[in-house]
Amino acid sequence: MKWYTGGQKATKGSYWEKTSGEIFYAAEGGAVFPGGVERQYLKMPAPVLMMVAPMLGLGYVMFLPLIGVGVVVGYIAQKVSGALVSGTRSAAAAVVPNWVPGVSYLARKGPHSDHKASTKPEVESLLHELEQEINEKRQRGEK
Description:
This protein has a four-stranded antiparallel beta sheet with strand order 1-6-3-4. Strands 2-5 form a two-stranded antiparallel sheet. The mean pLDDT is about 80. The chain is of the alpha+beta class. The protein has helices at about 45-95, 120-140; strands at about 5, 10, 15, 25, 30, 40-45. A hairpin with a 5-residue loop joins strand 3 (about 15) and strand 4 (about 25). Helices cover about 50% and strands about 15% of the residues. The chain has a domain at about 5-90. The chain contains two helices and six strands.
């Protein structure tokens, strides 16, 4: 048995296409195989081809439902694993402290801290100066 590719000249006989399972019959004068070089044909005697073709169809009919079940089971497994990963991450986020690299957390917090009560007047005076500076630049036409 010899392999042929699409576009080659075929002699009289029956041929089986590998990927699609298509059967190609060449007449007396010969014919050219359809398709390009990606399609491969195997020359087989007609009686062998008549026995192989129904077996291939039977295998397709038998395994198609199993493929469908496999796809559904895979889809469900993907959704369940995604939910488990999501749940695990949110549970871990609740347990892990809120730590930020580069921040020291050395300042005391709470009612017993001993730093200044308020620096509000200082901040307001700085904001007032900044506002005056912006207004002066606008009047001069600067940005």
